[in-house]
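Worked example 2:
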Amino acid sequence: MKKTLLLLMGAWTLLTSAQQVTVTSSTPLLRGVEDAFYPCLNPAGDKLLYSDVDAHGLKMLDLSTNKVSILSEQNGAGFDAKWSSDGNVYYVTSAINPSDHLVYRTGMRYDMKRHMSDVVLEAQHGAVHLETGTQGMAFNGTLRNYSTAPNRGLSVYTTGSEVVLNIAGKEHRYSPVESYAGYLWPSISPNGDKVAFFAAGKGIVVINLEGKVLAQLGNYEMPCWYNNDYIVAQNASDDGYQFTSSQILLLKADGTFLHELTPKTSMTMQPTAGGGKIVYTTIDGKLNVITLDINE
């Protein structure tokens, strides 16, 4: 048993030492302008969605011009805004109805050509899940749904402890790992052959399109695909009241490699990736964009 363990440890050392990651550039964003949270890069990596610490309102930073545009001033708009395959932005707003004092959520689309937002899913009480697809988007609500098209290519969202995959118009539901507190942050790999998500109590899980677990990467949060082989994630700890550490990690999707992009003391969090860039913020809202060189 000891000999087998030593051999495995030796193989792991050879595997990890063969890979080198270098941060080739690091640039602050919006410094001296405003604090920013919940960043979301578009696939090309030239436009960035962000909001304030309370997810009130939604803004967009054009990284090529440094111009900032206001997409919404509504509550909740910045919490889970997503880019669609046609370049538009989908987001959910929330408001308390004065008549019954319940929270109602509305599905919104920002049209980048018309520079304005439209309601695509009327306000309803209950959860509204945003489903991101390779050929379309959808909102899945407690009472009503909205879809840009019946066939959204390959799309995914989570509800409770289920990953819901829609493949060419056919829905598949999987619960590949046990997690009583549910799943969050699902995303499709660039090649469309894998899905990564966070399972509470388990960490980041990578599955194939049949729901089979390919890898469990550790108890990290907010996974997003850097490319088809690597995932960027947040590694945070807290004392039950506040964060005590937080850093950004680069993980190989098969679970064989981990690299610290920022130290634990940096309090960096909420990573997003696109176009070969990684953007993250800090606990006090300081955005930064970096690029990498991965030598395998």
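The two ends are 31 Å apart (CA to CA). The first strand starts at residue 20 and ends at 29.
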